[in-house]
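> Could you send the Thiol-disulfide isomerase prediction when you get a chance?

Sure thing. Input:
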Amino acid sequence: MATYLAEHPEFLVAASETLHQRQQIAQQQAYVQLALQYRAELLSSSSPSVGPNEAKAAVVMFFDYQCSWCSKMAPVVENLIKANPDTRFIFKEFPIFSSRWPVSGLAARVGEQVWLTQGGAKYLDWHNALYATGKVEGALTEHDVYTLAQHYLTPTQLTAVKEAQSSGAVHDALLTNQALAQHMDFSGTPAFVVMPQTQNGDVKRVTVIPGSTTQDMLQMAIQKAKG
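Output:
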């Protein structure tokens, strides 16, 4: 047997590829079951969102403003929003890099405050504008965040953001997102869940992507979720 394998290494390569494919399928199935289990939390109306609340399908994105791959996905998501006005897009502020770059947490708190006080359209403007700076992986500064935030929040609302580090609705929202990401077994950003919004949504219509992807892949997932 050892001699055969030495003479035919392609057999080992094929076996390894088959095993990897099976592991990927099993992981995707596990993710889908988690998405169904935490459906209510993923589709919560408390999270920033744009698009019809009663849309057939929803795209849920976990992200960090200092994540370089999230920054690359931002224009992709923006294009998808424009191409799918009948789909709900839900944004889960998940500042996973905040311990390394505290400005990540600040930006997330501002985002939640914009959502709470200004609604989805203004939130999306803020979200895209911050990523448009191109400042990721520690390049973003508090000055950058506060300068941009002044276009969306009043001085009183900005003060509320500064006080939201340890309590309040904004603080609680970020803790909720962190717990949900842990439940979903997401250890990094970005991460996407595309699913039907109906309670009896077919398991085959749910797609979970724990990482960056392409616009075409997300579009296919949206079409699948719509049924």
